[in-house]
Amino acid sequence: MTILYRGMDRAALDAAYLNTKAIPDFPAVLASCQARSAALYNATPGRRDLRYGTRPAQRFDWLSCGQPGAPLFVFIHGGYWQHCAKEDFAYAASGPLARGFDVVLAEYTLAPVASMAEIVAEIGALLDYLAADPDGLGTAQRPIHLSGHSAGGHLTAMHRAHPAVVSALAISPLVDLEPISLCCLNDKLQLTAHEIDTCSPLRHIGPGVPTVVAVGDAELPELIRQAHDYAAACDAAGEPIAHVRLPAMKHFDVLDDLANPHGEMLAVLQAIAPR
Fold it and tell me: Where is the BD-FAE-like domain (predicted)?
């Protein structure tokens, strides 16, 4: 047995990060998420598949809460940078919409078509695009509250210093890519040493916006650790941070809290962040 990271060999690392193996019948869970998302799309005014770049996946959906000049909540889906799409988890927008946010659901090019550095750059390009607002959505100069789940939480943490962003909500964020590079998730990502360093938010805690780091208490221990380590590092650096532990929630359950207008994550975010 070859120990690779924190006492774990390759098989243990695989088990430590494979969220879909940690719950029974993931296909049924995903199908439920997709059905809830389709219902939200049908019930919510907005515009679908607007483009922010030339690659096929460089697109986003804009959903309106119906309030003129509403702040913007940008949500980045997870899937370990290689699976899923914005349509899978759109239902999570229910909570922000009900609390008076317009919502942007972000899509990005997945690995192995895109490298980690390219994926990170795409989210930056989306934020630049929303700030410029060539589509006339009214997003220019509106405060952007950036959020994402899992891989999307990582991408949120990577852009918490973007000039258009006023707050960040990183949900179950993967902030250190070293263990990712040592397990089966790297088969498609093919992370370089440079990417592991520069694209690991835990290694680069710089000045940024008020940030909520959230994780479910029933998630895999490595995800809980990564969220805790990032919150602690931000706090030690004097960054405005709130760490939310969601009781009894697993990796996909946490999005139910975001979809709830009275959920804890949105309450904490609005308590620490400017509107």
Answer: 70-159
